Amino acid sequence: FPVENIRNFSIVAHVDHGKSTLADRLLELTGTIDKTENNKQVLDKLQVERERGITVKAQTASLFYNCEGKQYLLNLIDTPGHVDFSYEVSRSLSACQGVLLVVDANEGIQAQTVANFFLAFEAQLSVIPVINKIDLKNADPERVENQIEKVFDIPSDECIKISAKLGTNVESVLQAVIERIPPPKVHRKNPLRALVFDSTFDQYRGVIANVALFDGVVSKGDKIVSAHTQKTYEVNEVGVLNPNEQPTHKLYAGQVGYLIAGMKNVIEAQIGDTLYLHKQPVEPLPGFKSAKPMVFAGMYPVDQSEYNNLKSAIEKLTLNDSSVTVHRDSSLALGAGWRLGFLGLLHMEVFNQRLEQEYNASVILTTPTVPYKAVLSSSKLIKARRAVQKNMIFIDQNRVMLKYLFPLNEIVVDFYDSLKSLSSGYASFDYEDAGYQTAELVKMDILLNGNTVEELVTVVHKDKAHSIGKAICERLKDSLPRQLFEIAIQAAIGSKIIARETLPIFKNIFQYGGDITRKMKLLKRQAEGKKKLRKIGNVEVPKDAFIKVLKTR
Ligand code: GDP
Ligand code: MG
């Protein structure tokens, strides 16, 4: 395939603006998949993606397209939109020369539209603005064109107006990809230089590395070296993603595809690594700056005998999602486990759900916390969240972009939901790291009949300790089953109790008359529940109770 007939591009957008739907139409138009009614977010392969209707993992597909007698190879990378997954986006962009920036014709520019535009702009990629959903009754493509011109300085006549759902004008998107995005700048005569920009794990074949070839050629049977580990491997298989793996004899510079070479684990398949031929060593490519976790939580097997299984599940999943950091940890109450770092709360939930669905694991997650540096010694929504305003830009008459400095722990848990409900769904939100600041923080314990619950220890701001402590106690009271004695649920800072709830005694169900089958059902449910119980002092706490308290702090 001549390099000048190759285009590598990505689709970026705010959540729900229609990336995956546009990808479906592009796959259909190029005959990559058959046109049927059932093509809905074809590239969202994971169960968690289908259930939540969001993309969490970037996917690659190679499309063949004929235009004016020439055949083109278009490598499309579909990316997630949610703020927690912007790391996936920035990695995908390193394999591209251009992006389709999809904007909803009704909602207009949103927070991740801006964030994704700047990721593409900084990577010096061509940006093709695509205004989607023009079929909607409330669509106002002219207003969105003006926003794009004002905020991104892209002339409004460069915008392509489409309906990805109905397929309207989608062909002109392919035309623009060919005309406006340059072919990759590569050298096929030079020795091989391949960037590993993503990888997945297959139970039977080991690591499947997604690679972008900057120089040279790679074939089955070649001896290659990982610049990162300096280990040598023999290439077992190369191919393109169509969007499923399709083996080919070779991959050439300019192409995006996959490579299998007997790599077995995370350490061997570093994302950002450069692969080269054993005979012809080269300078490695720049790679990626590593993802910076923002939210930390402990993860433990429900049953310690599951430790090794969970360990291997976590290893495989982190191979698939390299932005998660993993450190061994242990807890008095929960035994051996790990401390995991995530990019945000949705990321944490998705990781947990994938462990359960794809690896059948059953885990306990502790309260998420954000990193603090401790020095040992003795208006809105916005004000309550201890924020400082930095600037304000009007996007048009009825939309404004605000920048604030926030303490991270104020935004990781429920800020996004509060913002959405306060603004009746109109506001959107994105964030980046602004460094550490000093603050008055205290460590808060939660006690059950005087015994500390390890899982619920948190660091909170002094002024908020009382209200947070009270909320946790109340929630714990609601989610704990009653037991044969009274339970005191307390929040404490050091030896000072700052909140208390009391869970009354459990009355044996046989004391009430009534239907025997109903009683038997209750007893059976209790027995099942027991399997997942953990004892703190004399108090039995089901796993469910932890999760209920942790999720909605
Ligand atoms: P993504 O999060 O950017 O990948 O967005 P999706 O492709 O999953 O689309 C989000 C929702 O918008 C889905 O319910 C789609 O059916 C819908 N959608 C996408 N494109 C269009 C369009 O052109 N018109 C209309 N009316 N709905 C669309
Ligand atoms: Mg999607």
TrEMBL record:
Name of this protein: GTP binding elongation factor GUF1
Membrane topology of this protein: Peripheral membrane protein
Annotated GO CC locations: mitochondrial inner membrane; mitochondrial matrix
Species this protein is from: Macaca fascicularis
Domain Tr-type G span(s) in chain numbering: 4-185
Keywords of the record: GTP-binding, Hydrolase, Membrane, Mitochondrion, Mitochondrion inner membrane, Nucleotide-binding, Protein biosynthesis
GO MF entries: GTP binding; GTPase activity; mitochondrial ribosome binding
Catalysed reaction equations from the record: GTP + H2O = GDP + phosphate + H(+)
GO process annotations (BP): positive regulation of translation; translation
Residues at which GTP binds: 13-20, 78-82, 132-135
Chief subcellular location: mitochondrion
HAMAP family the record matches: LepA
Family: Belongs to the GTP-binding elongation factor family. LepA subfamily. Belongs to the TRAFAC class translation factor GTPase superfamily. Classic translation factor GTPase family. LepA subfamily.
Function of the molecule: Promotes mitochondrial protein synthesis. May act as a fidelity factor of the translation reaction, by catalyzing a one-codon backward translocation of tRNAs on improperly translocated ribosomes. Binds to mitochondrial ribosomes in a GTP-dependent manner.
Keyword hit for Protein biosynthesis: yes
Keyword GTP-binding (UniProt): yes
Annotated compartments: Mitochondrion inner membrane
